[in-house]
């Protein structure tokens, strides 16, 4: 058995977005001889998922540990990629994504969801905005999903994550809003009516269109604090990836 690591994220035309993922991957300390590929679902030519699979298999990898670098198990991409890799028999939602050509065994990991490391990362990015935590609400904003089953997973993960952030921050309250179905504006309005300052934290991997354009547009005219800082860059993200990999390597060793 020769394991290898395939880290999959969405991809972007924005080169800064891609470079932030690459930088996080470059800080992994997984030991010599363990080949790592960072691939993207779309938009990054020459570095798509099939490219990553091919490079790992060309290096003699027999078991591919896949880390889906997405913020929620409610993402339909997490589901369709698992299916296209052959790690599940059928997708929960119909997809245009065709099956990849994979000879190696695929071991599919978990997305971020409500991991404690992620709560620390969010608070680190927000800390500078907090002035009076006893009357502040931290509002996590995620992409969300309109699809049944996926929406509930989004809600479950982000609500649990918000509570983790509240506990480590000392803020009076924490809540979440989703862009799909849209609840972001109404949540800010609600907490302002309660007399709270609202600190808005985007639950996105890297800065892009949603953090720079969509969220500010949805909240236009409201009073809130927002830096637009995303999970990356942050030294804890490589740590999160390493933890997932080590757990899965241990499981492989026990088989």
From TrEMBL:
Protein's name according to its UniProt entry: Cobalamin biosynthesis protein CbiX
Could you tell me the keywords of this UniProt record? Lyase, Metal-binding
Give the source's domain of life in one word. Answer: Bacteria
Q: Where is the signal peptide?
A: none
Q: Which GO terms describe its molecular function?
A: lyase activity; metal ion binding
Please indicate if the UniProt record lists Metal-binding as a keyword. yes
Q: Which InterPro entries match?
A: CbiX-like, Sirohydro_Cobaltochel/CbiX
């Amino acid at each position: 058995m020769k394991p290898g690591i395939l880290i999959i994220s969405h991809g972007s035309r924005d080169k800064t977005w891609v470079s932030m993922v690459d930088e996080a991957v470059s800080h992994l300390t997984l030991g010599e001889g363990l080949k790592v590929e960072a691939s993207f679902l779309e938009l990054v030519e020459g570095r798509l998922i099939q490219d990553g699979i091919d490079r790992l298999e060309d290096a003699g990898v027999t078991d591919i540990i896949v880390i889906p670098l997405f913020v929620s198990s409610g993402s339909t991409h997490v589901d369709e990629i698992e299916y296209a890799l052959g790690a599940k028999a059928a997708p929960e939602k119909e997809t245009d994504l065709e099956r990849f050509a994979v000879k190696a065994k695929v071991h599919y990991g978990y997305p971020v969801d409500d991991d404690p490391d992620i709560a620390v990362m969010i608070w680190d990015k927000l800390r500078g905005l907090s002035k009076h935590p006893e009357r502040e609400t931290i509002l996590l904003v995620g992409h969300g999903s309109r699809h049944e089953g996926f929406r509930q997973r989004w809600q479950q993960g982000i609500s649990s994550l918000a509570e983790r952030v509240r506990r480590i921050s000392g803020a009076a309250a924490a809540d979440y809003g989703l862009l799909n179905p849209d609840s972001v504006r109404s949540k800010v309005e609600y907490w302002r009516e309660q007399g709270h300052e609202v600190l808005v934290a985007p639950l996105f991997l890297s800065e892009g269109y949603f953090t720079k354009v969509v969220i500010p547009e949805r909240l236009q005219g409201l009073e809130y604090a927002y830096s637009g800082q995303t999970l990356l860059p942050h030294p804890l993200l490589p740590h999160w990836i390493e933890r997932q990999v080590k757990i899965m390597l241990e499981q492989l060793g026990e088989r």
